Structures are given as structure tokens and as C-alpha cells.
From TrEMBL:
<dbReference type="InterPro" id="IPR018094">
    <property type="entry name" value="Thymidylate_kinase"/>
</dbReference>
<dbReference type="GO" id="GO:0005829">
    <property type="term" value="C:cytosol"/>
</dbReference>
<protein>
    <recommendedName>
        <fullName>Thymidylate kinase</fullName>
        <ecNumber>2.7.4.9</ecNumber>
    </recommendedName>
</protein>
<comment type="similarity">
    <text>Belongs to the thymidylate kinase family.</text>
</comment>
<keyword id="KW-0808">Transferase</keyword>
<feature type="domain" description="Thymidylate kinase-like">
    <location>
        <begin position="9"/>
        <end position="201"/>
    </location>
</feature>
<dbReference type="GO" id="GO:0006235">
    <property type="term" value="P:dTTP biosynthetic process"/>
</dbReference>
<keyword id="KW-0418">Kinase</keyword>
<dbReference type="GO" id="GO:0006233">
    <property type="term" value="P:dTDP biosynthetic process"/>
</dbReference>
<keyword id="KW-0545">Nucleotide biosynthesis</keyword>
<dbReference type="GO" id="GO:0005524">
    <property type="term" value="F:ATP binding"/>
</dbReference>
<keyword id="KW-0067">ATP-binding</keyword>
<dbReference type="Pfam" id="PF02223">
    <property type="entry name" value="Thymidylate_kin"/>
</dbReference>
<keyword id="KW-0547">Nucleotide-binding</keyword>
<dbReference type="InterPro" id="IPR027417">
    <property type="entry name" value="P-loop_NTPase"/>
</dbReference>
<dbReference type="InterPro" id="IPR039430">
    <property type="entry name" value="Thymidylate_kin-like_dom"/>
</dbReference>
<comment type="function">
    <text>Phosphorylation of dTMP to form dTDP in both de novo and salvage pathways of dTTP synthesis.</text>
</comment>
Amino acid sequence: MASGLFITFEGPDGAGKTTQLRRLASFLAPRLKRPVITTREPGGTRIGDAIRAILLDPAHVELCREAEVLLYAASRAQHVAERIRPALAAGAVVLCDRYVDASLAYQAAGLGVDPAVVAAINRFATGGLLPHRTYLLDIDPAEGLRRVRARRGQGADRIEQKALAYHQRVREAFLRLAANDPQRIRVLDASRPEEEIAREIAADCWALCRRLQLETGGSKDEAGCGGGPGQG
Ligand SMILES: Nc1ncnc2c1ncn2[C@@H]1O[C@H](COP(=O)(O)OP(=O)(O)OP(=O)(O)O)[C@@H](O)[C@H]1O
Ligand SMILES: Cc1cn([C@H]2C[C@H](O)[C@@H](COP(=O)(O)O)O2)c(=O)[nH]c1=O
């Protein structure tokens, strides 16, 4: 099926996902004979960006958790159909800021929605498309939120406003997901200097590209990693 490479970045708010995603894109783009696309969730499409505005608006205090799960999944469905699958089919490297793991951490563990329900809705939304590799930037949520506040210098969004205990549940859920899928999810201590983390991610990702022969323009089909992203 797809001949591209699908990589996601996850972690608590302010862990440094966007910073590391951009650094990896800058590392890969000049070295690979294929497009490197950066995108994010919720969002990544016109419809997804409209959904993002609904989800993150701090005024939307009445949003019920069922609607929240479905809105994140709706944004993802559009994103997968409109951008991610076509890019992978064309052989691109897709670097995505958050994906299904975020819904399992924030909506299932954070809000207490049945994880089996969140997983089923997301299988429907994505057609079971999973990343080849996920970089989990792990950080104490208090430190992550401090970074976000320092970066933004303005009010928090609807999710960032939630209690620290909620963000702690999210962090713990991410670590459990990584423990259950160590082949795909690589945990990085995000409290370290930006450059050190970037070097580790680049080395791991380059090894993956070489294994899949992406650096020579080819694309090797490997079980669960290469011929197409894993199908959950
Ligand atoms: N390793 C690091 N050490 C210290 N500060 C960092 C590090 N990485 C990123 N930052 C800074 O922390 C802030 C948040 O970084 P970034 O936007 O990359 O995080 P994020 O995880 O994408 O945030 P969000 O969850 O809001 O999307 C930025 O000001 C960034 O410069
Ligand atoms: C994809 C996804 C995201 N979230 C949360 C996580 C963040 O608080 C926001 C997105 O903002 P960011 O600055 O772009 O990280 O949404 C979520 O709760 N569930 C999800 O599936």
C-alpha cells in the first residue's frame, strides 16, 4: 500500500513536540529524495482547523465529553482522508503533531471515557492507520504548562485550563501506552536541552529511514513498518 513514512509526536502540553517536529523536518528534508510534510491535530485541514477552534475555545465550558471525543475523531478522520493517506501513498514522510494516542491519553484517561470506546471510534475515523514511529516527549505537566505560559504570554486554551491532576493522568496514560507498545513509541526525557533531544530523535529516525531504504529513494516493505503504516 503506502510507501511513505508516518511519524507522530506526543506528550503533555508544552513538552516541546512542535519544536522537535520542526527540527526533525529540517534534518530530514535535505537528506531524503521525497517530500517531508509537517501537520498537526486537531487541525491539518480547513475542516479540522474549524473543529480545532471549537475544541480549544476556553468559552466552550459546556462541551460534553462524548462530543469532545467525537470532535477530535472527526478532525482526525478528515485529516487522514484529505492529507495523511494521500501523502503516504505518494511516498512522503508525514510528521504529525499529535494523533490517536492523544485521544487515548486526554479523553480516555483524562476525562474517564471508556478507552475501548475511544479506540473503536478512532479505528473508524482512521481506518486503522497507525504511525510507524511515535516520539513521546515526557515531561512533568507543571513544567510543560509553565513553558506554554511563557511562550504564549496570553490566556490558556480550554485543555490547558484543566486541573493539574487531569494533566498528570494524561502523562501517566502516555507512559502506559509506551510501555505497551515499545516497538512504536520511543520515550524521551523532555526536560533536557532541546538540542540533545533533537539529536536522539534524528538518530533514531535516520536509522528507521535507512532500514526502509528511504534515504536512497526506495521503500522496503517490512512487517508492521514500511510497506504501509501499521493497521490497528
Ligand atoms: N527542551 C526544551 N527545554 C526548554 N524549553 C523548551 C524545550 N523545548 C521546547 N521548549 C520551549 O517550550 C515552549 C513550548 O514548546 P513547544 O511549542 O515546542 O511545545 P508543544 O509540546 O508543541 O506545546 P503544545 O502542547 O502547546 O502544542 C516553547 O517556548 C519552546 O521554545
Ligand atoms: C489530538 C488531540 C489533542 N488534544 C489536546 C491536547 C492539547 O491540549 C490540545 C491541542 O493543542 P496543541 O497546542 O496543538 O497541542 O488538544 C486532545 O485532548 N485530544 C486529542 O486527540
